[in-house]
Design the sequence.
């Protein structure tokens, strides 16, 4: 069974530039999550989708972060403009609806310089 | 709102020794509990979960955890560790019966296994 796919694996950008991350969840998983993991901390939920609808985006910095899941499958997370404090690993996860087991991708490591 | 405390940021242990990684949580509602492992440059992998039933939960790779409601704890244990267990371990909670899983993670414990 294919896992959660994320790209790119690594990205280095200058502050004030924009960046986008892509996630392809496990086939059949209606629920998709984006987490931000800052070095030395646990992952923090940014946004959660159920199919193509947003369930929870209470911790998403909406002035600079945006995410979409137009067809209820793939998702993109965008940062514009990036700040130094956005340097982190961005993890995508997915799960079947109503289950309590999320499967995580390998993440995208973002460095903002 | 829930919170998770992992008091030990790093736990060094020798190979074949037992280990316990501590996790305490705070919540005003019932929660589900999870332990995830993260190997270097990898995503998180579920080790085990407590949803209901027996408070002693067995997971993959020989790990187990015990849910203690009165002490609001969910400590992770392994009787004999291997070098390959070196990784970051995260405890997480999720509110019961919301219909969707919203994990709140602790800050993690780095397990360092040496020969």
Sequence:
């Amino acid at each position: 069974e294919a896992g959660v796919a994320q790209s790119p694996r690594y990205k280095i950008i200058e502050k004030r530039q924009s960046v986008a991350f892509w996630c392809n969840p496990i086939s059949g998983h209606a629920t998709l999550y984006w987490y931000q993991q800052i070095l030395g901390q646990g992952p923090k939920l940014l946004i959660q989708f159920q199919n193509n609808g947003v369930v929870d985006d209470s911790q998403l910095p909406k002035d600079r972060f945006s995410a979409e899941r137009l067809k209820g499958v793939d998702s993109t997370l965008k940062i514009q403009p990036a700040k130094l404090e956005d340097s982190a690993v961005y993890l995508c996860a997915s799960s079947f609806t109503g289950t309590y087991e999320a499967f995580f991708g390998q993440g995208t490591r973002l460095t903002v310089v | 709102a829930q919170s998770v405390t992992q008091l030990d940021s790093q736990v060094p242990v020798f190979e074949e020794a037992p280990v316990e990684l501590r996790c305490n949580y705070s919540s005003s509602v019932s929660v589900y509990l999870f332990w995830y492992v993260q190997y270097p440059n990898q995503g998180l992998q579920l080790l085990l979960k407590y949803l209901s039933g027996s408070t002693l939960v067995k997971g993959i790779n020989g790990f187990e955890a015990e849910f203690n409601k009165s002490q609001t704890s969910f400590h992770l244990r392994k009787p004999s560790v291997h070098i390959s267990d070196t990784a970051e371990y995260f405890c997480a909670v999720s509110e019961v019966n919301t219909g969707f899983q919203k994990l709140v993670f602790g800050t993690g414990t780095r397990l360092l296994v040496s020969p």
Observations:
- DSSP finds no helices and twelve strands in chain B.
- The longest strand of chain B covers residues 87-95.
- The mean pLDDT of chain B is 93.
- The radius of gyration of chain B is 14 Å.
